[in-house]
Amino acid sequence: MLYHSAVFFVTYLVLACCSAPRRYFPWNLILLSIFTLSMSYMTAMLSSYYNTKSVLLCLGITAMVCLSVTIFSFQTKFDFTSCQGVLFVLMMVLFFSGIVMAIVLPYRYVPWLHVVYAILGAIVFTMFLAFDTQLLMGNRRYAMSPEEYIFGALNIYLDIIYVFSFFLQIFGSQRE
Description:
By secondary structure, the protein is an all-alpha fold. The relative contact order is 0.16. The protein is about 80% helix and about 0% strand. The chain has helices at about 1-15, 20-25, 25-45, 50-75, 85-105, 110-135, 150-170. The protein folds into two domains: about 1-50; about 50-170. The longest helix is centred in the last third of the chain and has 27 residues, at about 110-135. The mean pLDDT is about 90.
């Protein structure tokens, strides 16, 4: 698992921080494929701790949420790309509440606090999915360059995986 985490982290840093590799064909597709395989392996390992019915339920919920957010992003007049400040504030709330939970939960497990954190995470990354979808579409205030299709695919893929993992925390039942 540590090897796959390292592969995930290195390929993510290369794709997110270095514009040359993500624009140079075929290395951009090779790096994105390696990233996708490592992330899918890590998600599969996470899902193996949960009941199969719970995983399928969360997969269905994630698919419905992603489809509806994508359709909404395509047809709405509301511009999510101009909401960068709101997304930053929500992300900071999620980040600092995660730090507090990491300190509090080892001493005493508080189930409702875990559920509130997972709901907040699902909402934040669903909003990021709408933001990234509109950013990739390009007909809003801010747009992504057509040369950055790998970066756009990376962002949308991560948003979907994070939404799935937060739904798994909310609705998933542990394997016995």
